[in-house]
């Protein structure tokens, strides 16, 4: 008997039965465009289907050349495309799963000069101004959608998901923000929804009743001049009447200045949006966004907020998510921490997606961890993410692994990261590694300062000894270490409590994290009576009830102004932060009135505070605390040179740069795969 009865209850559609309530949501990986990418893509989906995902929705596939997100991206327009896609449908069906292809036309979001839209209004996130479609061209676009669905059926897909959300072409027709037309495709709600409904009706008329149609409906646009509640609910009914089998919930346009999937978004906060639709239609409705563990998914279903749960990134993190949840192995789930670092950030840069916590994702043909031909004794020095990952992956291959850690607990930098607001789910990564280390009988030695003589009986040594904070050369700094000057590890660990104004020296990723940490510490008194969801909606101005148009309301932030974030470089702070999350951190700091100063040189630390020079002007920052976030240096044991075995360096021991858990875990996997 499963502990998640609603999650594993089958769902009967008109002509199909889904084995459980779990959908693997659409996510583009860029394998679609890689050489031999469909071989790798088929293997990627096979791993998920074999582990009992009820329904897989592919990454977005364009119905024509004008609809691609970028040049050379995948389309479904020819028999050659059909043959490629058969690789996916055949492996999924052989594994007992069902699969639908997502039809996505980017509209004005395309990054190429041939973009089209209902009106010639340029998107704030694209350098290209779209051409307004003529009536004839609109009809051709509809035909292209229908043709792509027909080809998808020929390729063996069980259905299609029509992307009508996130600000893509169909959504651009629906919203007044992007549809300024005065013909039959614009103006009234009926006219603005005509394009979406003609696509649905055309596909339904052309294909058999057993061909599943999902429609991703934007419930909360989260942009000015988006859809209001009446419009969203009316469109949902029209879609049902037009022949849609399942309505998937869409949250936020890509240009919205509201975070909807990043780590600081509370789990399942948007299930209320799916409930809004579920109360007004008689077809299944899907809950989405920031659902990453089975207890959360089960609660959504039990509360009646949705009929199905869609997760995308969690299936990058763990292909066996469903199997583990169903068989009482929840602690073995490698949980998505919503960092976006190895998935969305990579895709938007044109690279192949993977996963910070699971480097095997999209590398299923590369990282297989087959049983080792020769079982070895492997020593791993350091139990941060690199060391923990190396120990687990080596043990997967059958090696006998000993993990040495000088501290009293494993985890390394993860123990600091999990205390940062918006990064608490790093604790899930730590839980996962602890579980897997125990499962694979890794011999863990805590409080252990290793020496060369301790390692003579090991065949190979992996050094994952990490990094330590680097202190800059500032006059007076050493006089105040421990009283006024602290490093980021001391602050994030909670070993010191900072009172009064603070200056943060260094504004890279760590400095920004510390700034966020300190702003939240100062806001605790104002927020202690509110839930995470309430605080999130308040900070970003979200109305989950949709009583305000597009779900937007006035943000309310308890601002403080006694934190200084400083950097030497004369460039905007946060310039090199991640593409999909950096803007969120910068917005958070601006909301909390953090003083962000660049082009700074540090003159002196004294009893009064920190003396800086900026653009030729000297000033005293009267601060009680100075937090050092000016980089790291590798920790390399001096006895390493005495070892006669093969030694591998990974993580911070290999390169002291910005803390990079993705690189560390991937290095661990690559080493383990060949030892």
From TrEMBL:
<comment type="similarity">
    <text>In the N-terminal section; belongs to the NADH:flavin oxidoreductase/NADH oxidase family.</text>
</comment>
<protein>
    <submittedName>
        <fullName>NADH:flavin oxidoreductase</fullName>
    </submittedName>
</protein>
<dbReference type="InterPro" id="IPR036188">
    <property type="entry name" value="FAD/NAD-bd_sf"/>
</dbReference>
<keyword id="KW-0479">Metal-binding</keyword>
<keyword id="KW-0288">FMN</keyword>
<dbReference type="InterPro" id="IPR023753">
    <property type="entry name" value="FAD/NAD-binding_dom"/>
</dbReference>
<dbReference type="Pfam" id="PF00724">
    <property type="entry name" value="Oxidored_FMN"/>
</dbReference>
<dbReference type="InterPro" id="IPR013785">
    <property type="entry name" value="Aldolase_TIM"/>
</dbReference>
<keyword id="KW-0560">Oxidoreductase</keyword>
<feature type="domain" description="FAD/NAD(P)-binding">
    <location>
        <begin position="377"/>
        <end position="634"/>
    </location>
</feature>
<dbReference type="Pfam" id="PF07992">
    <property type="entry name" value="Pyr_redox_2"/>
</dbReference>
<dbReference type="GO" id="GO:0046872">
    <property type="term" value="F:metal ion binding"/>
</dbReference>
<feature type="domain" description="NADH:flavin oxidoreductase/NADH oxidase N-terminal">
    <location>
        <begin position="6"/>
        <end position="331"/>
    </location>
</feature>
<dbReference type="InterPro" id="IPR051793">
    <property type="entry name" value="NADH:flavin_oxidoreductase"/>
</dbReference>
<keyword id="KW-0285">Flavoprotein</keyword>
<dbReference type="GO" id="GO:0016491">
    <property type="term" value="F:oxidoreductase activity"/>
</dbReference>
<dbReference type="GO" id="GO:0010181">
    <property type="term" value="F:FMN binding"/>
</dbReference>
<keyword id="KW-0411">Iron-sulfur</keyword>
<dbReference type="GO" id="GO:0051536">
    <property type="term" value="F:iron-sulfur cluster binding"/>
</dbReference>
<dbReference type="InterPro" id="IPR001155">
    <property type="entry name" value="OxRdtase_FMN_N"/>
</dbReference>
<keyword id="KW-0408">Iron</keyword>
């Amino acid at each position: 008997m499963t502990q998640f009865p609603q999650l594993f209850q089958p769902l009967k559609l008109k002509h199909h039965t889904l084995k459980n309530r779990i959908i693997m949501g659409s996510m583009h990986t860029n394998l679609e465009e890689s050489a031999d990418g469909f071989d790798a893509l088929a293997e990627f989906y096979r791993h998920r289907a074999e582990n009992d995902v009820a329904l897989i929705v592919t990454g977005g596939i364009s119905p024509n050349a004008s609809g691609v997100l970028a040049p050379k991206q995948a389309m479904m327009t020819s028999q050659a495309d059909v043959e490629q896609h058969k690789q996916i449908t055949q492996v999924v069906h052989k594994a007992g799963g069902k699969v639908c292809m997502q039809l996505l036309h980017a509209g004005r979001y395309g990054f190429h000069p041939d973009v089209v839209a209902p009106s010639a209004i340029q998107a704030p996130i694209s350098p290209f101004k779209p051409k307004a479609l003529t009536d004839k061209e609109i009809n051709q676009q509809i035909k292209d959608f229908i043709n792509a669905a027909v080809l998808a059926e020929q390729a063996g897909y069980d259905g299609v998901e029509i992307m009508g959300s996130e600000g893509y072409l169909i959504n651009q027709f629906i919203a007044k923000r992007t549809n300024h037309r005065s013909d039959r495709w614009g103006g009234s709600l009926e006219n603005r929804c005509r394009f979406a409904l003609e696509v649905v009706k055309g596909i339904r008329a052309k294909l058999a009743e057993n061909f599943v149609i999902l429609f991703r409906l934007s419930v909360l646009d989260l942009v000015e001049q988006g859809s209001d509640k009446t419009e969203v609910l009316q469109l949902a009914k029209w879609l049902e009447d037009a022949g849609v089998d399942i309505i998937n919930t869409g949250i936020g346009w890509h240009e919205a200045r509201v975070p909807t999937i990043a780590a600081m978004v509370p789990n399942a906060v948007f299930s209320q949006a799916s409930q809004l639709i579920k109360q007004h239609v008689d077809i299944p409705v899907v809950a989405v966004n920031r659902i990453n563990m089975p207890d959360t998914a089960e609660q959504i279903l039990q509360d009646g907020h949705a009929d199905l749960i869609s997760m995308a990134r969690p299936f990058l993190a763990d292909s066996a998510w469903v199997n583990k949840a169903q068989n009482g192995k929840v602690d073995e789930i490698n949980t998505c921490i919503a960092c976006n670092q190895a998935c969305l950030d990579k895709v938007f840069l044109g690279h192949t997606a993977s996963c910070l916590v699971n480097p095997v994702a999209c590398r299923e043909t590369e990282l297989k961890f087959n049983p080792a031909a020769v079982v070895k004794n492997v020593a791993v020095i350091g139990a941060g993410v690199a060391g923990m990952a190396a120990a687990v992956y080596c043990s997967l291959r059958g090696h006998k692994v000993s993990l040495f850690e000088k501290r009293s607990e494993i985890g390394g930098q993860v123990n600091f990261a999990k205390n940062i607001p918006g990064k608490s789910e790093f604790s899930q990564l730590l839980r996962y590694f602890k579980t897997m280390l125990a499962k694979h009988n890794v011999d863990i030695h805590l409080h252990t300062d290793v020496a060369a003589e301790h390692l003579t009986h090991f065949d190979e040594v992996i050094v994952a000894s990490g990094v330590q904070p680097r202190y800059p050369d500032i006059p007076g700094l050493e006089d105040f270490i421990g009283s006024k000057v602290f490093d980021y590890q001391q602050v994030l660990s909670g070993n010191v409590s900072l009172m009064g104004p603070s200056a943060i020296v260094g504004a890279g990723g760590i400095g920004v994290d510390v700034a966020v940490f300190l702003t939240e510490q100062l806001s605790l008194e104002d927020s202690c009576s509110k839930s995470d969801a309430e605080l999130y909606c308040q900070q970003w101005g979200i109305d989950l009830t949709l009583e305000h148009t597009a779900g937007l309301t006035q943000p309310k932030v308890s601002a403080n102004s006694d934190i200084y974030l400083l950097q030497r470089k004369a460039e905007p702070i946060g310039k090199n932060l991640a593409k999909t999350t950096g803007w969120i951190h910068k917005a958070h700091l601006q909301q909390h009135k953090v003083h962000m100063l660049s082009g700074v040189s540090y003159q002196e630390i004294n009893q009064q505070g920190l003396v800086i020079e900026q653009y030729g002007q000297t000033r005293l920052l009267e601060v009680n605390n100075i937090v050092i976030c000016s980089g790291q240096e590798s920790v390399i044991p001096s006895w390493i040179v005495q070892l006669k075995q093969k030694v591998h360096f990974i993580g911070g021991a290999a390169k002291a740069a910005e803390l990079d858990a993705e690189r560390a875990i991937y290095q661990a996997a690559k080493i383990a795969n060949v030892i």
